[in-house]
Amino acid sequence: MAKVAIMGYGTVGSGVYEIIAQNSEKLCKNTNGTAVEVKYILDIRDFDDHPHKELFTKDFNDILNDPQVSVVAEVMGGLHPAYEFTKSLLEAGKSVVTSNKELVATYGTELLDTAVKNHVNYMFEASVGGGIPVIRPLHQDLTANHITKIAGILNGTTNYILNEMINNGSTFEDALKDAQEKGYAERNPAADIEGHDACRKIAILASLASGYEVDYSGIETEGIVNITLDDVKCADKFGGRIKLIGYAEFLENGRIYSLVSPMFIPDECPLAGVNDVFNAIMVTGDCVGDLMFYGAGAGKLPTASAVVADVVDCVKHEKSPKKILWVKPQKELMADENDKQFAYFVRACDSEENIKKIFADAKIKPGAADGEMMFITKPMMAEEISRKLNELQKTVTAIKVLG
Ligand code: HSE
User: Fold this and answer.
1) Any alpha helices (H) in 118-262, and if so which ranges?
2) Which of 126, 65, 183 lies closest to 313, judged by CA?
3) Alpha-carbon distances of 262 from 173, 195, 198, 249, rounded to whole Å
4) Is 201 annotated as catalytic?
5) Which of 177, 181, 196, 356 suits 328 as a labelling partner, its CA being 20 to 30 A distant?
6) Which atom of ligand 1 is nearest to the CA of 198?
7) Which atom of ligand 1 is nearest to the CA of 297?
8) What pLDDT does residue 369 have?
9) pTM of the model
10) How far is the CA of 164 from the centre of ligand 1 (A)?
11) The dihedral formed by the CA atoms of 118, 324, 314 and 199, expressed in degrees to the nearest 10
12) What count of other Cβ atoms lies within 10 Å of the Cβ of residue 19?
Protein backbone atom coordinates (compact mmCIF):
# COMPACT_ATOMS: atom_id res chain seq x y z
CA MET A 1 0.00 0.00 0.00
CA ALA A 2 1.33 3.47 -0.94
CA LYS A 3 0.07 6.28 1.28
CA VAL A 4 -0.25 9.62 -0.44
CA ALA A 5 -0.76 13.16 0.86
CA ILE A 6 -2.30 15.99 -1.14
CA MET A 7 -1.21 19.54 -0.31
CA GLY A 8 -3.87 22.01 -1.45
CA TYR A 9 -7.54 21.16 -2.00
CA GLY A 10 -8.35 23.61 -4.79
CA THR A 11 -9.35 22.82 -8.36
CA VAL A 12 -6.46 20.44 -9.05
CA GLY A 13 -6.17 18.97 -5.53
CA SER A 14 -9.84 17.95 -5.43
CA GLY A 15 -9.36 16.38 -8.89
CA VAL A 16 -6.38 14.37 -7.63
CA TYR A 17 -8.43 13.12 -4.68
CA GLU A 18 -11.35 12.14 -6.96
CA ILE A 19 -9.19 10.26 -9.46
CA ILE A 20 -7.35 8.30 -6.75
CA ALA A 21 -10.66 7.41 -5.05
CA GLN A 22 -12.53 6.52 -8.26
CA ASN A 23 -9.81 4.72 -10.22
CA SER A 24 -8.19 2.82 -7.37
CA GLU A 25 -8.35 -0.59 -9.07
CA LYS A 26 -6.86 0.71 -12.28
CA LEU A 27 -4.11 2.53 -10.38
CA CYS A 28 -3.30 -0.64 -8.42
CA LYS A 29 -2.86 -2.55 -11.68
CA ASN A 30 -0.59 0.17 -13.03
CA THR A 31 1.65 0.18 -9.99
CA ASN A 32 2.06 -3.59 -10.44
CA GLY A 33 -0.11 -4.37 -7.45
CA THR A 34 0.52 -1.58 -4.94
CA ALA A 35 -2.71 0.09 -3.85
CA VAL A 36 -2.63 3.89 -3.70
CA GLU A 37 -4.54 5.58 -0.88
CA VAL A 38 -4.86 9.20 0.24
CA LYS A 39 -3.92 9.52 3.94
CA TYR A 40 -3.85 13.31 4.34
CA ILE A 41 -5.16 16.41 2.63
CA LEU A 42 -3.45 19.62 3.74
CA ASP A 43 -5.45 22.83 3.45
CA ILE A 44 -5.85 25.87 5.69
CA ARG A 45 -9.59 25.96 5.02
CA ASP A 46 -12.29 23.88 6.76
CA PHE A 47 -14.03 21.12 4.82
CA ASP A 48 -16.50 19.94 7.49
CA ASP A 49 -19.02 18.74 4.90
CA HIS A 50 -16.53 16.53 3.07
CA PRO A 51 -17.47 12.80 3.31
CA HIS A 52 -13.88 12.10 4.39
CA LYS A 53 -13.28 15.12 6.56
CA GLU A 54 -10.98 13.03 8.79
CA LEU A 55 -8.33 13.19 6.01
CA PHE A 56 -7.94 16.96 6.34
CA THR A 57 -5.17 18.55 8.35
CA LYS A 58 -3.86 22.08 8.71
CA ASP A 59 -0.53 20.89 10.06
CA PHE A 60 2.18 20.16 7.48
CA ASN A 61 4.15 18.24 10.14
CA ASP A 62 1.50 15.49 10.15
CA ILE A 63 2.63 14.67 6.61
CA LEU A 64 6.33 15.31 7.06
CA ASN A 65 6.61 13.14 10.17
CA ASP A 66 4.46 10.23 9.03
CA PRO A 67 6.81 7.46 7.81
CA GLN A 68 3.89 5.78 6.01
CA VAL A 69 3.54 8.66 3.53
CA SER A 70 5.83 7.96 0.58
CA VAL A 71 4.45 10.31 -2.10
CA VAL A 72 3.12 13.86 -1.76
CA ALA A 73 1.18 15.78 -4.42
CA GLU A 74 1.96 19.49 -4.07
CA VAL A 75 -0.90 21.25 -5.84
CA MET A 76 -1.11 24.32 -3.61
CA GLY A 77 0.55 26.66 -6.12
CA GLY A 78 2.66 29.74 -5.40
CA LEU A 79 6.26 29.82 -4.22
CA HIS A 80 5.92 29.93 -0.46
CA PRO A 81 5.43 27.78 1.50
CA ALA A 82 5.37 25.30 -1.43
CA TYR A 83 9.18 25.57 -1.79
CA GLU A 84 9.93 25.02 1.92
CA PHE A 85 7.44 22.14 2.16
CA THR A 86 8.77 20.42 -0.97
CA LYS A 87 12.40 20.76 0.10
CA SER A 88 11.68 19.29 3.57
CA LEU A 89 9.68 16.42 2.11
CA LEU A 90 12.41 15.48 -0.37
CA GLU A 91 15.03 15.67 2.39
CA ALA A 92 12.82 13.44 4.53
CA GLY A 93 12.93 10.80 1.80
CA LYS A 94 9.47 11.34 0.31
CA SER A 95 8.81 11.71 -3.42
CA VAL A 96 6.95 14.84 -4.50
CA VAL A 97 4.86 15.44 -7.62
CA THR A 98 3.59 18.87 -8.60
CA SER A 99 1.52 20.97 -10.98
CA ASN A 100 3.25 24.12 -9.67
CA LYS A 101 4.96 25.67 -12.70
CA GLU A 102 6.03 28.75 -10.76
CA LEU A 103 7.89 26.57 -8.27
CA VAL A 104 9.50 24.32 -10.90
CA ALA A 105 10.58 27.30 -13.03
CA THR A 106 12.03 29.13 -10.01
CA TYR A 107 13.50 26.39 -7.81
CA GLY A 108 13.49 23.40 -10.19
CA THR A 109 17.31 23.12 -10.40
CA GLU A 110 17.67 22.94 -6.63
CA LEU A 111 14.66 20.69 -5.98
CA LEU A 112 15.62 18.20 -8.69
CA ASP A 113 19.13 18.06 -7.24
CA THR A 114 17.71 17.57 -3.73
CA ALA A 115 15.56 14.70 -5.01
CA VAL A 116 18.54 12.97 -6.64
CA LYS A 117 20.69 13.39 -3.50
CA ASN A 118 17.95 11.89 -1.32
CA HIS A 119 17.14 9.02 -3.74
CA VAL A 120 13.55 10.10 -4.30
CA ASN A 121 11.55 11.43 -7.22
CA TYR A 122 10.50 14.99 -8.02
CA MET A 123 8.07 14.92 -10.96
CA PHE A 124 6.19 17.77 -12.62
CA GLU A 125 4.26 16.48 -15.65
CA ALA A 126 1.23 18.65 -14.76
CA SER A 127 3.27 21.85 -14.66
CA VAL A 128 3.16 22.27 -18.46
CA GLY A 129 0.23 21.56 -20.75
CA GLY A 130 -2.25 20.40 -18.06
CA GLY A 131 -3.29 16.87 -19.06
CA ILE A 132 -0.96 16.63 -22.08
CA PRO A 133 1.98 14.26 -21.64
CA VAL A 134 4.95 16.40 -22.70
CA ILE A 135 7.45 16.40 -19.81
CA ARG A 136 7.80 12.61 -19.82
CA PRO A 137 8.16 12.40 -23.64
CA LEU A 138 10.82 15.13 -23.57
CA HIS A 139 12.72 13.49 -20.75
CA GLN A 140 12.25 9.90 -21.82
CA ASP A 141 10.98 9.15 -25.31
CA LEU A 142 12.95 11.89 -27.10
CA THR A 143 16.18 11.24 -25.26
CA ALA A 144 17.94 10.17 -28.49
CA ASN A 145 17.38 13.62 -30.02
CA HIS A 146 18.90 17.04 -29.89
CA ILE A 147 15.79 19.19 -29.56
CA THR A 148 16.08 22.07 -32.01
CA LYS A 149 12.80 23.94 -31.48
CA ILE A 150 9.76 24.09 -29.20
CA ALA A 151 6.77 26.29 -30.04
CA GLY A 152 3.56 25.99 -28.14
CA ILE A 153 0.25 27.33 -27.03
CA LEU A 154 1.00 26.91 -23.34
CA ASN A 155 -1.72 28.93 -21.67
CA GLY A 156 -5.33 27.75 -21.85
CA THR A 157 -6.86 30.94 -20.47
CA THR A 158 -5.44 33.23 -23.16
CA ASN A 159 -6.27 30.74 -25.89
CA TYR A 160 -9.82 30.58 -24.56
CA ILE A 161 -10.06 34.39 -24.53
CA LEU A 162 -8.72 34.81 -28.08
CA ASN A 163 -11.03 32.07 -29.29
CA GLU A 164 -14.11 33.59 -27.63
CA MET A 165 -13.23 36.98 -29.14
CA ILE A 166 -13.02 35.68 -32.69
CA ASN A 167 -15.73 32.99 -32.64
CA ASN A 168 -18.34 34.53 -30.36
CA GLY A 169 -17.49 38.24 -30.59
CA SER A 170 -16.95 38.35 -26.80
CA THR A 171 -15.13 41.24 -25.24
CA PHE A 172 -11.76 40.55 -23.63
CA GLU A 173 -13.24 41.17 -20.15
CA ASP A 174 -16.24 38.82 -20.60
CA ALA A 175 -14.06 36.05 -22.00
CA LEU A 176 -11.64 36.39 -19.07
CA LYS A 177 -14.49 36.24 -16.55
CA ASP A 178 -15.75 33.09 -18.23
CA ALA A 179 -12.28 31.48 -18.03
CA GLN A 180 -12.08 32.35 -14.33
CA GLU A 181 -15.50 30.80 -13.65
CA LYS A 182 -14.43 27.62 -15.42
CA GLY A 183 -11.35 27.35 -13.17
CA TYR A 184 -8.77 27.86 -15.95
CA ALA A 185 -7.32 31.23 -14.91
CA GLU A 186 -4.64 31.78 -12.28
CA ARG A 187 -5.63 33.32 -8.95
CA ASN A 188 -4.11 36.53 -10.30
CA PRO A 189 -5.14 36.47 -13.98
CA ALA A 190 -2.33 38.89 -14.82
CA ALA A 191 -0.10 35.79 -14.83
CA ASP A 192 -2.13 34.45 -17.75
CA ILE A 193 -2.86 37.54 -19.81
CA GLU A 194 0.56 39.17 -19.37
CA GLY A 195 2.27 35.95 -20.47
CA HIS A 196 4.11 35.07 -17.22
CA ASP A 197 2.45 31.65 -16.94
CA ALA A 198 3.46 30.74 -20.51
CA CYS A 199 6.94 32.12 -19.79
CA ARG A 200 7.46 29.78 -16.83
CA LYS A 201 6.23 26.85 -18.90
CA ILE A 202 8.54 27.49 -21.85
CA ALA A 203 11.41 27.94 -19.36
CA ILE A 204 10.67 24.49 -17.91
CA LEU A 205 10.47 22.88 -21.37
CA ALA A 206 13.67 24.60 -22.53
CA SER A 207 15.51 23.57 -19.34
CA LEU A 208 14.42 19.99 -19.78
CA ALA A 209 15.30 19.92 -23.47
CA SER A 210 18.73 21.54 -23.03
CA GLY A 211 19.79 20.17 -19.64
CA TYR A 212 20.56 23.74 -18.52
CA GLU A 213 18.54 26.00 -16.26
CA VAL A 214 16.71 28.53 -18.42
CA ASP A 215 16.05 31.48 -16.16
CA TYR A 216 12.50 32.61 -16.94
CA SER A 217 13.25 36.16 -15.84
CA GLY A 218 15.54 36.47 -18.88
CA ILE A 219 12.83 35.52 -21.39
CA GLU A 220 11.29 38.44 -23.26
CA THR A 221 7.59 38.19 -22.45
CA GLU A 222 4.57 39.93 -23.88
CA GLY A 223 0.98 38.88 -23.17
CA ILE A 224 -2.26 39.46 -25.06
CA VAL A 225 -3.42 42.64 -23.29
CA ASN A 226 -2.70 44.80 -26.34
CA ILE A 227 -4.41 42.50 -28.84
CA THR A 228 -7.67 44.00 -30.08
CA LEU A 229 -10.71 42.41 -31.66
CA ASP A 230 -9.70 44.18 -34.92
CA ASP A 231 -6.25 42.51 -34.79
CA VAL A 232 -7.91 39.13 -34.40
CA LYS A 233 -10.41 39.84 -37.22
CA CYS A 234 -7.72 41.16 -39.58
CA ALA A 235 -5.53 38.10 -38.96
CA ASP A 236 -8.53 35.93 -39.77
CA LYS A 237 -9.10 37.86 -43.03
CA PHE A 238 -5.42 37.51 -43.93
CA GLY A 239 -5.51 33.72 -43.43
CA GLY A 240 -4.25 33.21 -39.91
CA ARG A 241 -4.92 33.25 -36.19
CA ILE A 242 -3.32 35.19 -33.37
CA LYS A 243 -2.13 32.94 -30.55
CA LEU A 244 0.06 33.47 -27.51
CA ILE A 245 3.16 31.39 -28.25
CA GLY A 246 5.94 30.19 -25.98
CA TYR A 247 8.98 29.73 -28.21
CA ALA A 248 12.45 28.28 -27.71
CA GLU A 249 14.99 27.64 -30.44
CA PHE A 250 18.21 25.82 -29.65
CA LEU A 251 20.79 27.50 -31.88
CA GLU A 252 23.87 25.85 -33.37
CA ASN A 253 26.12 28.16 -31.31
CA GLY A 254 24.79 26.44 -28.18
CA ARG A 255 22.58 29.33 -27.12
CA ILE A 256 18.82 29.35 -26.68
CA TYR A 257 16.57 31.99 -28.20
CA SER A 258 13.32 32.13 -26.25
CA LEU A 259 10.36 34.44 -26.02
CA VAL A 260 6.67 34.59 -25.20
CA SER A 261 4.65 36.70 -27.58
CA PRO A 262 1.37 36.91 -29.45
CA MET A 263 2.13 35.56 -32.93
CA PHE A 264 0.35 35.37 -36.26
CA ILE A 265 -0.09 31.68 -37.05
CA PRO A 266 -0.82 30.93 -40.72
CA ASP A 267 -3.94 28.76 -41.14
CA GLU A 268 -1.88 25.89 -42.58
CA CYS A 269 0.11 25.53 -39.32
CA PRO A 270 -1.51 22.93 -37.00
CA LEU A 271 -1.29 25.39 -34.08
CA ALA A 272 -3.83 27.66 -35.84
CA GLY A 273 -6.59 25.10 -35.27
CA VAL A 274 -6.00 24.81 -31.52
CA ASN A 275 -9.03 26.40 -29.90
CA ASP A 276 -10.79 26.83 -26.59
CA VAL A 277 -8.75 25.91 -23.50
CA PHE A 278 -6.64 23.44 -25.47
CA ASN A 279 -2.85 23.63 -25.54
CA ALA A 280 -0.53 22.26 -28.19
CA ILE A 281 3.24 21.97 -28.17
CA MET A 282 5.26 21.45 -31.35
CA VAL A 283 8.65 19.89 -30.68
CA THR A 284 11.33 19.39 -33.33
CA GLY A 285 14.08 16.86 -32.75
CA ASP A 286 17.06 16.24 -35.02
CA CYS A 287 16.18 12.55 -35.43
CA VAL A 288 12.41 12.42 -35.01
CA GLY A 289 11.50 15.60 -36.94
CA ASP A 290 8.33 17.48 -35.99
CA LEU A 291 5.96 16.26 -33.27
CA MET A 292 2.85 17.84 -31.85
CA PHE A 293 1.38 17.23 -28.40
CA TYR A 294 -2.23 18.35 -28.06
CA GLY A 295 -4.92 18.28 -25.39
CA ALA A 296 -6.64 20.03 -22.49
CA GLY A 297 -4.13 22.50 -21.07
CA ALA A 298 -6.00 23.44 -17.90
CA GLY A 299 -8.93 22.34 -15.79
CA LYS A 300 -9.53 20.06 -12.84
CA LEU A 301 -9.47 16.48 -14.15
CA PRO A 302 -7.03 16.94 -17.09
CA THR A 303 -4.42 18.50 -14.78
CA ALA A 304 -5.12 15.99 -11.99
CA SER A 305 -4.72 13.17 -14.55
CA ALA A 306 -1.09 14.24 -15.07
CA VAL A 307 -0.49 14.60 -11.31
CA VAL A 308 -1.83 11.11 -10.60
CA ALA A 309 0.25 9.65 -13.44
CA ASP A 310 3.31 11.03 -11.63
CA VAL A 311 2.09 9.54 -8.33
CA VAL A 312 1.88 6.12 -10.02
CA ASP A 313 5.34 6.60 -11.54
CA CYS A 314 6.77 7.48 -8.11
CA VAL A 315 5.24 4.35 -6.58
CA LYS A 316 6.70 2.23 -9.40
CA HIS A 317 10.11 3.90 -9.10
CA GLU A 318 10.32 4.07 -5.32
CA LYS A 319 13.43 1.87 -5.22
CA SER A 320 15.07 3.21 -8.38
CA PRO A 321 14.13 6.90 -8.64
CA LYS A 322 14.13 8.56 -12.02
CA LYS A 323 16.98 10.99 -12.37
CA ILE A 324 15.61 14.14 -13.98
CA LEU A 325 18.11 16.98 -13.82
CA TRP A 326 19.15 20.25 -15.34
CA VAL A 327 22.07 22.32 -14.14
CA LYS A 328 23.04 25.98 -13.97
CA PRO A 329 24.88 27.04 -17.15
CA GLN A 330 28.52 28.02 -16.75
CA LYS A 331 28.39 30.64 -19.51
CA GLU A 332 25.77 32.91 -21.09
CA LEU A 333 22.98 30.64 -22.35
CA MET A 334 20.39 32.97 -23.79
CA ALA A 335 20.61 34.40 -27.29
CA ASP A 336 19.15 37.85 -27.93
CA GLU A 337 16.95 39.33 -30.64
CA ASN A 338 19.97 39.78 -32.92
CA ASP A 339 20.25 36.01 -33.21
CA LYS A 340 16.83 35.42 -34.72
CA GLN A 341 14.79 36.79 -37.61
CA PHE A 342 11.01 36.83 -37.79
CA ALA A 343 8.51 37.84 -40.47
CA TYR A 344 5.87 40.30 -39.20
CA PHE A 345 2.13 40.70 -39.72
CA VAL A 346 1.57 44.45 -39.89
CA ARG A 347 -1.52 46.67 -39.82
CA ALA A 348 -0.62 50.19 -40.91
CA CYS A 349 -2.18 53.39 -42.20
CA ASP A 350 -0.28 54.36 -45.32
CA SER A 351 -0.58 54.16 -49.11
CA GLU A 352 0.03 50.85 -50.87
CA GLU A 353 2.73 52.62 -52.88
CA ASN A 354 4.63 53.80 -49.80
CA ILE A 355 4.34 50.41 -48.10
CA LYS A 356 5.78 48.75 -51.23
CA LYS A 357 8.70 51.17 -51.21
CA ILE A 358 9.61 50.23 -47.64
CA PHE A 359 8.62 46.56 -47.69
CA ALA A 360 9.36 45.29 -51.20
CA ASP A 361 7.54 41.99 -51.99
CA ALA A 362 4.97 42.47 -49.20
CA LYS A 363 1.57 41.03 -50.12
CA ILE A 364 -0.79 43.87 -49.18
CA LYS A 365 -4.54 43.72 -48.43
CA PRO A 366 -7.02 46.32 -47.19
CA GLY A 367 -7.18 46.42 -43.36
CA ALA A 368 -9.97 46.89 -40.84
CA ALA A 369 -10.71 50.58 -41.45
CA ASP A 370 -10.59 53.03 -44.37
CA GLY A 371 -6.99 53.89 -45.23
CA GLU A 372 -5.61 50.93 -43.35
CA MET A 373 -3.56 48.18 -44.98
CA MET A 374 -2.25 44.86 -43.73
CA PHE A 375 0.67 42.79 -44.96
CA ILE A 376 3.30 40.22 -44.01
CA THR A 377 6.97 41.13 -44.29
CA LYS A 378 9.91 38.91 -45.16
CA PRO A 379 11.92 37.63 -42.16
CA MET A 380 14.09 40.32 -40.59
CA MET A 381 15.86 41.29 -37.37
CA ALA A 382 14.13 43.35 -34.68
CA GLU A 383 16.27 46.38 -35.46
CA GLU A 384 15.28 46.33 -39.17
CA ILE A 385 11.53 46.01 -38.55
CA SER A 386 11.48 48.83 -36.01
CA ARG A 387 13.41 51.10 -38.40
CA LYS A 388 11.04 50.28 -41.28
CA LEU A 389 7.89 50.67 -39.19
CA ASN A 390 9.09 54.15 -38.25
CA GLU A 391 9.11 55.06 -41.94
CA LEU A 392 5.37 54.30 -42.24
CA GLN A 393 2.84 57.04 -41.57
CA LYS A 394 1.22 55.07 -38.75
CA THR A 395 1.65 51.50 -37.53
CA VAL A 396 -1.41 50.02 -35.83
CA THR A 397 0.01 46.60 -34.97
CA ALA A 398 3.10 44.53 -35.77
CA ILE A 399 3.03 40.89 -34.69
CA LYS A 400 5.69 38.23 -35.23
CA VAL A 401 4.75 35.41 -37.62
CA LEU A 402 5.47 31.84 -36.50
CA GLY A 403 7.56 30.34 -39.30
N1 HSE B 1 -3.87 29.30 -15.89
C2 HSE B 1 -3.26 28.20 -16.55
C3 HSE B 1 -3.74 28.20 -17.99
C4 HSE B 1 -3.65 26.92 -15.85
O5 HSE B 1 -4.71 28.88 -18.30
O6 HSE B 1 -3.15 27.51 -18.82
C7 HSE B 1 -2.87 25.72 -16.30
O8 HSE B 1 -1.50 25.85 -16.07
Assistant:
1) 135-136, 156-168, 172-181, 190-193, 196-210, 229-238
2) 126
3) 18, 9, 11, 17
4) yes
5) 196
6) 6
7) 6
8) 87
9) 0.97
10) 16
11) 120
12) 21
